[in-house]
Amino acid sequence: MRETLEKKKGSGLGAAFDIGTTTLVCALVDLENRAVLSTESLPNPQSRWGRDVIARMEAAVGPDGALGELTAAIREALSGLLASVAGGRIGEVTALAAAGNSVMEHLFLGISPEPLSKVPYKPAFREAVTIAASDAGLLAGCGMYLFPLIGGFVGGDAVAAALSLGMPGKGRPVLAIDIGTNSEILLSSGGVLYATSAAAGPAFEGGEVEYGMTAALGAIQGVTIEDDSVSLDVIGGVAPKGICGSGLIEAVSMLLKAGVIDRTGRIRDKDEVASNLSSRIKESPAGNSFTLYRGPKKEISLAQSDIRALQTAKSATRAGISMLLMKAGIRPEEVETVYIAGAFGSHLKEDGLRTIGLLDDAWTDIRTVGDAALEGAVMALYDNGKKEAGTIAAEARYVPLSGSAHFERDFLRNMNF
Questions:
Q1: Average pLDDT over residues 355-373
Q2: In angstroms, rounded to a whole number, what is the distance separating the alpha carbons of residues 11 and 319?
Q3: Is the CB of residue 119 less than 8 Å from the CB of residue 152?
Q4: Residues paired with 339 in a beta bridge
Q5: CA gyration radius for the chain?
Q6: Do 203 and 316 form a contact (C-beta atoms < 8 A)?
Q7: pLDDT (tens digit per residue) in 116-143
Q8: SS3 of residue 297 by DSSP
Q9: In the sheet where 219-226 sits, what is the strand order?
Q10: Average pLDDT for residues 100-125, to the nearest whole number?
């Protein structure tokens, strides 16, 4: 009878967070049954200080010293997410875990990211941190576990992703790519985990793009070109407001296949394009543009500068992959499986990634795995998950890219499509 009156070990609720640069996600978990009950997300409010981690670091350590405001903003947002996902059961929450990139974890904890803003780009801490949830403004009477970091800009979210994907494994080499502003890349080979982060820039997430936006209502998320016809897949089925990262990749992929863009990334002149797609090209001495949508009040086009931003992001990511392969001493064709991780990555199509050259022709087993960092954070609600995360972070081999001649050569070599 006593057993039925007392809570079983591991019972109650837990909540796991993915503290993303662009989006915050929270999962409510039934700890006894190890089941995710619901998830909610919202845009990271720190975006008003900048869309990428570099801008936010500058705000935190700059003359205005916005670290306190950045910390307060993220804590308030996570507190609201927890209250929303748990509702009236927030008193039952007995475990919290969170994973974010290196800068996000510094800002959440209120620790200056200044060491990350200058060579040799080392974080102020690497070990896992546990704080009282109440100290971070979260209305739960328990501790909150933050994932350990690997090094540089390879943070707790990469450790969480590796945890959820079972990396490093003992089998054939496996590659995981979390495509974003900072593309985090993991390679498992011979039981060793190699990790790096490529500063791709915000093009993958709609930044540095003239009509770029996040994957919200009205964003062009897919593009199809058949003969002279351009079809758009718009989030919400409304009139387009802009284009997000997945739409940009698909648009460029389709325009490459249609011959509107050449392999160097140049949008061709009207007289170089035989089809009626030439009518959508606007020529300019600063670079041509291609009109995707013409409406009564708005026109959305891809500019030459947008293509260059995507090329830079793709090339940085591909060069980062090349660095890890070199460090592991393996060839691309030896990689058995490639995971495309992250909320953004789950919306990307393999064909588009191949066409722009982000994926090697030798890779045939491509799998999108969604928010692997959130799945890893859920696993860390349990002691064995925390232990594995600590081992992954401690034993991973961090590969810095800054100042590497090999990376610079590969970056230039991979610029073309």
A1: 94
A2: 46
A3: no
A4: 176, 367
A5: 22
A6: no
A7: 999 889 999 999 999 999 999 999 999 9
A8: coil
A9: 229-234, 219-226, 242-243
A10: 95
The pLDDT value recorded for residue 2 is 30
| The two three-digit tokens of residue 35, written as one number | 């089941």
Q: What is the pLDDT of residue 406?
A: 93
Q: Is the dihedral of CA 85, 88, 89, 91 positive or negative?
A: positive
**How many Å apart are CA 105 and CA 153, to the nearest integer?**
11
107: CB partners within 8 A, 6+ apart: 46, 56, 60, 67, 70, 71, 74, 113
Closest CA to 183 of 169, 193, 204, 197: 197
- Mind giving me the DSSP string for 119-149? TT---S--S-EEEEGGGGT---SSEEEEPPP
Cβ-Cβ contacts under 8 Å for 126 (sequence gap 6 or more) = 148, 149, 150, 151, 393
Residue type, 49: W
Q: 164 by DSSP, 3-state: which? A: helix
Structure tokens at 233: 């897949």
pLDDT at 10: 58
pLDDT by residue (tens digit) across 303-324? Answer: 999 999 999 999 999 999 999 9
397-398 and 192-199 strand pairing: parallel
Is the pTM above the cut of 0.85? Answer: yes
What is residue 265's three-state secondary structure?
Answer: coil
Question: In the predicted model, what is the mean pLDDT of residues 34-51?
Answer: 93
29 neighbors 35 (Cβ within 8 angstroms): yes
Burial 378-407 (b: 16+ CB within 10 A, else e): bbbbbeebbebbbebbeebbbbbbeebeeb
Instruction: Name 400's Cβ contacts closer than 8 Å, sequence gap at least 6.
Output: 120, 121, 151, 152, 196
CA dist 276 to 178, 223, 252, 270, 279, Å?
37, 17, 17, 9, 6
Task: Write out the two tokens for 357.
Answer: 């050259």
Which structure tokens are listed for 367? 């799998």
